[in-house]
Amino acid sequence: MTILPHPVISRRRFLSGSAAALVTANALPPDVSAQGAKFRRWEITDPAMPPRVLASYKTGISNMLDLPATDPRNWYRNAFVHIFDCPHQNWWFLAWHRAYLGWLEVTLRDLSGDQEFALPYWDWTKTPRVPAAMFAGVLDPNNAGFIPSLDKFKTQFEGPVAALYETFSQPQKDVLMQRGVGSSADFLAAASGMFFAQPDARGLTVMNPDVDTATRVAVSMATIRSALRTPTFAGSANGPDPAGFDSAKAANHNESSREGILESQPHDNVHGAMGGPGGAAFMVSFMSPVDPIFFLHHGNLDRLWDVWTRRQIALGRPALPQGPDLTTWSGEQFLFFSDEKGQAVSKTKAVDYTTMNAFNYEYSPGSGEDQVPAAGPVVAAASVATQVFKAQITSASIGAGKSAGGVVQVPATALQAPAAEASPGVAEITLNLTPADQGRRFQVLVSSGSGVNPIEAGGITVFSHHIHGPTTFAVPLPEIPSVTAAAAGNVPLDIRVLPIERTANVSPATAAIRAASGLRLGPEPQLSAIQVTTN
After folding, report:
1. Mean pLDDT to the nearest integer, 75-98
2. Predicted local confidence at residue 242, as pLDDT
3. Same domain, 437 and 340
4. Domain containing residue 26
5. What domain count does the chain have?
6. Which of 47, 89, 274, 516 could form a disulfide with 283 if both were Cys (CB 3.0 to 4.6 A apart)?
7. Per-residue exposure over 366-392, b if at least 16 CB sit within 10 Å of its own CB, e if not
């Protein structure tokens, strides 16, 4: 298959042939591609990025930090929206975060005075370390412009948060009740457990900017390729089908389901890596938007959604849910966003954020573009039935230095390299979790046979607002060197989950916050199931 580095999907081609039959008239706005958009989001290490981008980002953040706690545009108030409403582990993950970035972007454009401003993004596949520019001034949450301690945070926000709760509509209150924050006291308690005192606001430092090895695998081109080759937008909450590019279906955006590769691997593990060796910093919590790098991280995820969409269209596949699923997905409401003037927005449904046209932006090219086929006749990719193989669990408890895992018998033919259009092989790992597991991190190792020469397949970072009971993570199967094209019979895949140990190099203030909030105080998490899905 011929690949172009920067493919363009025209409106005419999108609406023609089999693509028109696959995507309903109202599934996407008419111009699916953002080519020629008004605003460009630059990759932060791109030498072509205008210097004004970071200058305006700093100015906008500084002005948001200076706003009173009663103003919805205040930097911390913006972070609160992530606690109030953000979806994880379900099929609204990408649309909600597209809206979140978009409304922040228009606010920064207004408050910075730069009418051409667009958020930069961080291509961690190309650069698996914190970009050097993100340690400058207010781009680093350890800067003096941020609130330095939990006591000062409580003093500044306790009253305004109580007043804010009095203004919420009943639908907003219903959402908050679903998330276990039914009162301002509940919220302040939750937010306090997610606050990290300086100098621990960001775990990776200018002297130690590199992500760990598990995260390097999670953001590698091999993993990104696997995510982009996922054939469906969202799979079933429980079933043999893949979880989907945007994770699996759920009844509403406050419920959990199965994580797809994109959320399980680059999303979760970059958040986890930003906690640093101590595992304690804003990016490991739901107050993660306090760290300005949050928006560069999610910008890259949003960019990959656009790459995946263009790939789907080029292959004659649906780019969104279909039939009744599209109606359900499109109508989900996001009720906590405000605009650049601090007013509630009128675009409150998932369907409002299906493409980048919602905010009229495009991205400079980044990793993964080579997965979009060259322009040409749309030929629907062949549908191949998914095969599912369940593991025999050999050890279930994951403790300090102690792995859990199982062995699954997989036909050698199912492990051979798939065609470029085929869906990837995936190990789905289900852990029984409790809220105390928030922020725990694990390596996933795969070997053929009894643990001989294991290959690091990726990582698992527990990052969610709904951590209770069984939670399923997707890890792409690595290439097994011993499985050749001529291999036959079954291959016993030994899949192990090993904790990533953290050194407790955090300040006394952060240690006290973690202890008070119960972080890492739960029992050992239990591995309940492993299944391998292949074509």
Report:
1. 97
2. 86
3. no
4. 11-371
5. 2
6. 274
7. bbbbbbbbeeeebeebeeeebeebebe
Dist. CA 182–CA 178, nearest whole Å: 8
Nearest to 284 by CA among 295, 269, 297, 298: 269
CB atoms within 10 A of CB 435: 17
Cα angle 475-481-483, degrees, rounded to a multiple of 5 = 90
Pairing state of beta strands 426-433 and 387-390? unpaired
Of the candidate ranges 289-293, 477-481, 506-510, the one whose mean pLDDT is the lowest: 506-510
Residue 520 has pLDDT above 60, yes or no: no
Residue 6 lies in a domain: no
Beta bridge partners of 498: 443
In a domain, 78, yes or no: yes
| Each residue's pLDDT tens digit, 318-339 | 999 999 999 999 999 999 999 9
Alpha-carbon torsion 126, 130, 135, 140, what sign? Answer: positive
- The band of 25, judged by pLDDT with boundaries at 50, 70 and 90, is very low
355 pLDDT band, cuts 50/70/90, is: very high
Q: Which amino acid is at 34?
A: A
Within 10 angstroms of residue 344's Cβ, the number of other Cβ atoms is: 13
Same domain, yes or no, for 456 and 341?
A: no
Q: For residue 90, what are its two tokens?
A: 């379900």
CA distance 272 to 204: 11
φ, ψ dihedrals at 266, nearest 5°: -60, -45
**Are residues 308 and 432 located together in one domain of the fold?**
no
The CATH number covering residue 406 comes to: 2.60.120
The two beta strands, 490-499 and 39-41, are unpaired
Assess contact for 530 and 495: CB atoms under 8 A.
yes
* pTM over the 0.90 mark: yes
Q: Confirm whether 176 is domain-assigned.
A: yes
Q: Note the pLDDT of residue 157.
A: 97
pLDDT tens digit string along 389-419?
Answer: 999 999 999 987 789 999 999 998 888 777 7
DSSP-derived 3-state class of residue 274: coil
* Confidence check: pLDDT of 195 > 80: yes
Residues in Cβ contact with 186 at an 8 Å cutoff, skipping those fewer than 6 apart? 180
